[in-house]
Amino acid sequence: MTKALLLVGFLLLLTSFTPVQQVPPPASLQVSGVVARPLTWSATDLAQHPHVTVRATDKQGHEHRYAGVPLHAILEACGAVTDNRLHGKELRKALLVTAADQYEVFFALAELDPTFAARTIILADQCDGRPLPPTAGPWQVIVPGERKPARWIRQVVRLRVVILP
Ligand SMILES: Nc1nc2c(c(=O)[nH]1)N[C@H]1C(S)=C(S)[C@@H](COP(=O)(O)O)O[C@H]1N2
Ligand SMILES: [Mo]
Fold first, then answer.
1. Nearest CA to ligand 1 atom 7
2. Percent of the chain with pLDDT over 70
3. The domain containing residue 79 runs over which residues?
4. Which of 13-17, 60-64, 68-72, 138-142 is predicted with the least confidence, judged by mean pLDDT?
5. Separation between Cα atoms, residue 126 and residue 111, nearest integer Å
6. From the alpha carbon of 148, which atom of ligand 1 is closest?
7. Which ligand lies nearest to the CA atom of residue 152 in the structure?
8. What does pLDDT average to over the chain?
9. Nearby residues for ligand 2 (ion, Cβ within 5 Å)
10. Ligand minimally distant from the alpha carbon of residue 146
11. How many angstroms separate the CA atoms of 2 and 33, rounded?
């Protein structure tokens, strides 16, 4: 009896050490909020969307080439702005970006619109021709020319268009 109990205990101990296979859920990007067409994009959807390359300097002061989809193109795809003409009351709209760790950053839509902004802010999936490292990817917002990288939000999972009251 004690032997049997010992065996059961031993087996339980053994299973507690069995490594659990970490299978990450397939990455997807939710685009929602005040939009005409909410979207859920897979990594493939995003990879197939036309990419642009921007040069930007990271926290360590190194310049890299980041490739990705302009946030403006995603806003167009979901219909964030009526007739795609950002003006008047639409200037109260903003994009709230959420990461896997719940870190969030905010952009006024005017910062993302090429008729206003001189720089192109992208949702990058590549750095110097390679996929982003898992700590940053699959998607990271890259803001060229910004003095601090605090809005270079890593592991983006959600984009929400909001209207300020
Ligand atoms: N998901 C996520 N992205 C983030 C942050 C964070 O806490 N979570 N911190 C930001 C801040 S404050 C900075 S300064 C940079 C730091 O970038 P690095 O540590 O990758 O160089 O990432 C930004 N992106
Ligand atoms: Mo920071």
1. 103
2. 84
3. 26-163
4. 13-17
5. 22
6. 14
7. 1
8. 90
9. 150
10. 1
11. 61
The tokens describing 140, both together, are 């990271």
- Specify which residues 33 forms β-bridges with: 161
Instruction: From the CA of 156, give the closest atom in ligand 1.
Output: 1
Residue 129 within a domain: yes
**What's the CA gap between 88 and 108, in Å, rounded?**
13
What is the pLDDT, as a whole number, of residue 27?
Answer: 84
pTM of the model: 0.86
Residue 78 has a pLDDT of: 97
Q: Is residue 113 part of a domain?
A: yes
Residue 32 CB contacts under 8 Å (≥ 6 apart), including other chains: 38, 39, 158, 159, 160, 161
**What pLDDT, on the 0 to 100 scale, is given for residue 20?**
53
Would you state the pLDDT for residue 165? 82
Backbone angles phi, psi at 44, to 5 degrees: -65, -45
Ligand 1: residues with CB < 6 A are 59, 99, 101, 103, 149-150, 152-155
Structural domain count of the chain: 1
Query: In this structure, is residue 83 part of a structural domain?
Result: yes
pLDDT, tens digit (0-9, with 9 covering 90-100), for 44-84: 999 999 999 999 999 999 999 999 999 999 999 999 998 88
Residue closest to 51 by CA, chosen among 68, 65, 64: 68
**For residue 12, with 0-12 CB atoms within 10 Å meaning exposed, 13-18 middle and 19 or more buried, which class applies?**
exposed
